[in-house]
Amino acid sequence: MNANYLDDLNERQREAVTTLKGPLMIIAGAGSGKTKVLTTRIAHLMRNGVDAFNILALTFTNKAAKEMKERVEKILGGNEARNLYIGTFHSVFARLLRSDAPKLGYPSDFTIYDADDAKSVVKTIVNELNLDDKHYKPNLVYNRISAAKNSLMSPEEYQHDYYVQQEDQRANRPLVGKIYEMYAKRCFKNGAMDFDDLLYKMYVLLKGFPEVLAKYQHKFKYIMIDEYQDTNPAQYEIVKLLGAVHENICVVGDDAQSIYSFRGATIQNILQFEKDYDDVKVVKLEQNYRSTKSILNVANEVIAKNKGQIEKNLWTDNTEGDKIKLIRTNTDNDEGKFVSDTIAEQKLRNHYANRDFAILYRTNAQSRSFEESLRRMAIPYRIYGGISFYQRKEIKDFLAYLRVIINTRDEESIKRIINYPVRGIGKTTIEKITIYSNEQNITFWQVLENAREFGFKGGTLEAIENFVTMMHSFRVQLEKQNAYDVAVQVGKSTNIVKELFNDKTTEGLARYENIQELLNSIKEFTETPTEDGELLDKSLGSYLQQITLLTDADQGNDQDSDVVKLMTIHAAKGLEFPVVFTVGLEESLFPSGMSINSREELEEERRLFYVAVTRAKSRLFLTYANSRYRFGQLQQNEPSRFIDEMPDQYIDRSYAGGMRNAGNFGGGGVSWGGMFDKRKTPAQQSTPVTRTVSKPVSSGAASNHTPSPNFAADDPAQMEAGMDVEHQKFGFGKIMSLEGAPNNRIATVVFPKGGGEKKIMLNYAKLMIVRNSG
DNA sequence: TTAGGCGCTGTTTTT
DNA sequence: CAGCGCCTAA
What we know:
The chain is α/β, with parallel strands linked by helices.
């Protein structure tokens, strides 16, 4: 290893790195070498005889965890870093809970519900309580539940908390507490934890089982926490418990970059740290190595508008650099075009690569205009965030099978797959099963296993029994085969893979490829040895828990791909780029219209703006549009108030019409390198663009067939391919093929006069076989 | 029982 | 401009 690793540090950094014992708070300004300090400190701990097994480092993103691990390895050389416990709060606790969850009555292979799963459970319960889900919106209710858990509030406490109850009363949603209680019970019954449970139950475990607490207190003698300003009360309490014995707690953060209060994070955790422990050492990293003076000065001046910050003075030795460019465009599409044009221009003029650019926006929905313009310019890009791979419907469906194989208690997942692909177990049947399950207080799956005793008959019983048998066979296979083989078998037995393969539409093709990709990822998981601490758990259960915690940003090998990156500002935290475009700087968009009602909210938006600005190393472009499409309608927007908060001397406003509200972009005669010559006039612009929508090819030519006088439907079982048939409406036709289960056959019939080929469900649409009498 | 069409509604950020 | 829920045809 590099023996001189301390030499690369400045004085403050070295002080932070070499303070090994006791509570330590590192206030790390943007670009001040925070990750370097953290990783070097871990290495230094190990150089001073601390066993890797005794170090716990918690981060907020998998990406940060991965980077930290890699950098420690690099400093140390060899594979000493292998035994470190580095990960996100959620993934580390999920791993710990895997061994101790049974103490709380959960299976160790508990399912992890993502936000969609959780909302779906909430919705089910709202419906069960006969409440109106237009009023008790699952989203809102789930957010309340989530907030409760993040403050370690149980359903009982929630229902007895005066203040909380007042809030719910005022919102006219007095039953949220009841829903929370039922939600918690349902998740428990399902053997499932949501994201918040991973923290909440961890706390419950440590509180309720002193021997477990002692075990981890002993194990994690040194604890480090990244992005401490974004921790919530649950995380705070857990850390406090874990660190109570040794008090070797090192937190790193920057109150100016606290942007997750909507997720329950409280900035108080970092502001109060000094009061929480005796003899806290505070080290401030104030030298910025990332940005030009211009960029840093703008950032500093804007953030100074916030109150109650930890005092610090971020400075840099870097050059002054270009002024920040402020650009006003007429529409959101012009904004997209400007950014793409400028990227092309900057690549030529200053020899940047695609990967040197980032486009940062407040909301995911803003990505569209940039995608379009980048595509038109043939500039490769990648969008981070949005729907992650694992949230796609086909993936969730497939994973639901695997989840049920691992954890049959998981009712949510069973419901997802019990009739996918269609096997004749419909809404009515599912409702019955739910009722039996609730009445008898047994799991959904147990009702399925005993379907006959519960009085299911005929086709339904058969369908249920087939389903149960199939799932049983998967479970048996899992004992002998690895996760990949079982997954492949699931794809085959359920016909899912074949079905998608036969779907030749673009979306069908994409879905098929996604499933293949999923199978590959399972294969990779089973075959690659992990270096994740003590986790050498290659089981399917372990795999499922891991992937639920994966984000879109964690996917793929993007490090080396040369693409422009598009993401929300939230997603950009911790990253840096030579050239940054922060776009959509308009009132009600940024700051968000949802966050301008209180000083606290607005200050968080301002911190977000601070984060956006400080991502830039050498060039920063800020853009806003006079009008943009929102809710499918053209909307006029005022420039963001943050624009006025920036010091003039570092801003080049010549592309923003000089001053605020100075005419519109089109009339001002301002152009950027002559690239906006084809801009539309305002009059043209206001005309809505109506796209010519080609009418769907109508297969239904006027089908006014009069049925034969002796028309009588024939038994579907008698139908065969090649037969001539008559339909009451479509007239005469020929059966081309038949598919589907025997009790639910679907015929493809060609009706020459009735509009061509049609799929007919024989149970519902009647066909008569035409008997050739001569 | 299911798919697909139509109209209503809601829109921030994410582990 | 979605994505969802409800209704209808098959």
